[in-house]
Amino acid sequence: MLRQISKSILLLLFSVVICCIAYPLVLWAIGQAAFPFQANGSLLQGPDGKDVGSKLIAQPFTKDEYFQPRPSSPSYDASASASSSLAPSNYALRDRVARTLGPIVTYRGGAKAGKQVAPDVEAWFQKDSFQGKPHIVAQWADQHNSLAQAWVNADPKNGAYVDEWTKIHQAIVAQWIKDNPATPKPKAADLAVVFFKDFSNTNPGRFPSSVTKTGPDGKPLTAIEPVKDGSDVQSIFFEMWREEHADADLQDVPGDLVTASASGLDPHISLQNAEFQLDRVAAKWAANLKRDPAAIRKEIEQIIQKNASAPWGGLIGEQFVNVLEINLELRKLYGAPS
Amino acid sequence: MFLQTWLLPVALLVIATIVAFPLSRYLAWVMDGKYRQLPVLSWFERSLDSGPQNWKQYTGSLLIFNTALFVFGFLVLAVQPWMPLNPDAKGMLAPSTIFNSVVSFMTNTNLQHYAGDVHLSNFSQVFFCISNMFLSASVGFCSLVAIIRAFRGEASLGNFFVDMWRVVIYMFIPAALIFGIIFMSQGSPMTLNSSYQVSTLEPAAMGTTDKGEVKKQTIVVGPVAALESIKMLGTNGGGFFGMNSAHPFENPTGVSNFFNTLAMMIFPFALVFMYGRMLRRLRHSWIIFSVMLLLMAGTIVWSICFDTLRPNPGLTAHATAQTFQIPNAKAPGGKQDVTIPAVAGLPVDQHLGNLEGKELRFGTSAGATFAALTTDVTCGAVNAEMDSLNPLAALSPMVGMWLNCIFGGKGVGMINMLLYVIIGIFIAGQMVGRTPEYLGKKIGAREVKLAVLALLVHPMMILMPTGLFAALDWGLKAVSNPGAHGFSQMLYQFSSASANNGSAFDGLGVTFGFANNATPSPTAIPWDIATGLVIVFSRFLPIIAPIAMAAFLGAKTTSPAGLGTLHDDTPTFGILVLGTILIVGALLFLPVAVLGPIAEHFGPMPFGG
């Protein structure tokens, strides 16, 4: 027994020295000598020579002048990789995809071919009737309690807005407490559904949304107000609009544009996705630089094609481009976007 | 499209077989002690040798060594805040999470209730993860070798400490160096730094702080390549980063993904041939190998067909409303109609299959292929999000864990296969009314009892805790997806724990985080402890019982093969084993499969929300 314990400790000691000290040091030395770029994280430098990020790690781009990477569950936090973990059957996945689609989807055929769907979604929303029943927002909150609650928790301003409403509508709150005796002191999120139902009754065809105006002191002031159009309406209610317009002939959007990658840090988009974004990117640069849109489009198209690659040269997968690399080329070619 | 889908899995299976066959010869050569020791290394080996051991001494040494490894692992994680290589001042993990992680890594499971990039310093990654990855893989390997020696009728099963030394030094270290260099060439970092702060190309794209300063992107790096290669070669599967082999640093390109996948296949493949070589029954090995390969190809084809070749059903149209009758005592007639409304399709091009939770750089079918392989060989690394697989596709990794003998992990997969072989022979013997024999030795009641005991630990350790957690808040509050998929999440976690696999449906709320975390997942502690206990029982009982069985069997006299002998090197024998595996597996797990992934496939889509 004692002999076996001493041998165990000896084996552990030898293994730690070899596996945890000698082996990593050998690899480290080889890596630093033979592959210094890769071994140090594949860092890329911007026009000013400073590190702008890793070639292998997605970073966010919000401006229309840049190509945008795939959606990221950890918001491109490269210190906490994560996937969405949403099952196909989870409505939250369908909702997330639909919200991305709403502002960008266009008609494929018919009289409006090529036109955006978003204005039609807004017009339909303002009529405030879904499947023959009035009040779209009330039905939305009723069918998707968790989404209504998520709206309340998404921003402190939203929560404060519901708290304000609670003070005025004590009767509704009292009724809610009567219906839910297990929660005598409801928080703002608990009341989300009744809040939206009441909101929808008093503001038909409106949704509470964050609006930025110039305040009396000249500074921008952000507040929640009932709105009848804008990005919230286009994205949140696209899914319900689609249910009522299942036959509308819409242009498909590339799959990787709306799906989140496993790591949340996928540095690539498909070539198809890049081509899809090309019109937007080219138009924006053309307007910025006051140059011919067709010429700019051709230049950027060349950048994409030059950077496109495929796994095993296309034998096992389709072509993709590295978002940071092509955006870096745009930045070097055209300067910083305004 | 056809080529892009099928070339990768076919190439993997063919090349792994081609590599494994000669490799098995080397493994048998090393384990039989025929190599000439290098002068420096022979001193180590001599000082480890405690003399020949019988089966009780061998398993005793195995258990004592694992105890030492447990203490060491616990210490390393517990002292993380005070150790070097920790510039981000990472604190101590919660005690229950330390227990879970230590047990999990010690047993080759690598179920991670923490995220490596968030919770571990480089010191812990190297001294906790890497040490356990080398050693736990070797333990399984050695137990298979002990069983082989017992079958050969040798009085001594060798020496556990010498065997461990041989496996680590002559197999894993050279292989890990080769694969480490490949991974570095593709882009895996190998540095002692732990993170970089970079200003993104578009300033403020990461947002701004409350003070109005532009947020930087923090990029975590470290000795990734060193961990990555042994993680895959040892079928450990515990990632350096939270998202494991899906993370661009762990798996930077399509080439690295091929080698990542290949690395987890070659040793399990080679062990089957090694078994035959050491017993001088290579033809028998080929039969077992064919059965395993057939099952493996089946799981791969299944997951590709339902994930790569089908769109994500959450986004597609379900054009007709469906009405089902369900029993309801209060409704008139005792039955109630439930209608699932029609759903409109979203305008998404899904010709590449389900892309949610997939990375683009690996190739079209790489995610589905990896998902099937990682549980077949009990690795547990993932290169796609298992939670987001299409419902039926997710059945494939689950079947890999439930059967737990499709090549399986280091050694233990082959041991599980031997249990099925023994039970298959026993059933066949019952059918023809003849005393069953394996390797010319009569299988008695004691051997069958030990085999069944080892085999039944696995379903009990999956089904009982899943049932318990599904009935309690522990389970219901932890699931992140509604309906049948929530049940699948719990089922998957315990299957993964019991199969010593380590992959997971990541949405399950099992992470406590650092000990001082104010808002941990409320169900983390029961999950830490329950899966930790499952891991221990499902690791050591199925190692000890088969070694005992082999020792009893090997001590018997060998009877010459006669006319009535069941030949173990014919296709008929292969079909017998295959049938045993499928029937026993289906009897044990079909009910839960129906409650989980199959119900999700047929159920309302989308569901809840």
Report on the architecture of this protein:
By secondary structure, chain A is mainly alpha-helical. Chain A has helices at 2-34, 36-39, 91-101, 118-127, 136-143, 145-154, 156-168, 170-179, 192-202, 231-236, 238-244, 255-258, 271-289, 293-307, 323-334; strands spanning 43-45, 51-54, 129-130, 133-134, 207-214, 220-227, 253-254, 268-270, 320-322. Chain A has 2 domains: 45-84 and 260-334, no CATH class; 91-244, no CATH class. Chain A has 15 helices and 9 strands. In chain A, β5 (207-214) and β6 form a beta hairpin. Chain B has one domain (2-200, 217-314, 351-602). Helix content of chain B is 57%, strand content 4%. Chain B has helices at residues 2-31, 39-48, 55-78, 95-106, 116-119, 122-151, 160-186, 224-233, 254-279, 282-308, 366-376, 395-403, 412-432, 445-471, 473-476, 484-498, 524-554, 571-602, and strands spanning 195-198, 217-220, 322-327, 335-340, 348-349, 437-438, 441-442. In chain B, a hairpin with a 7-residue loop joins β3 and β4. The two termini of chain B are 35 Å apart. The model of chain B has no long low-confidence stretch (mean pLDDT 94).
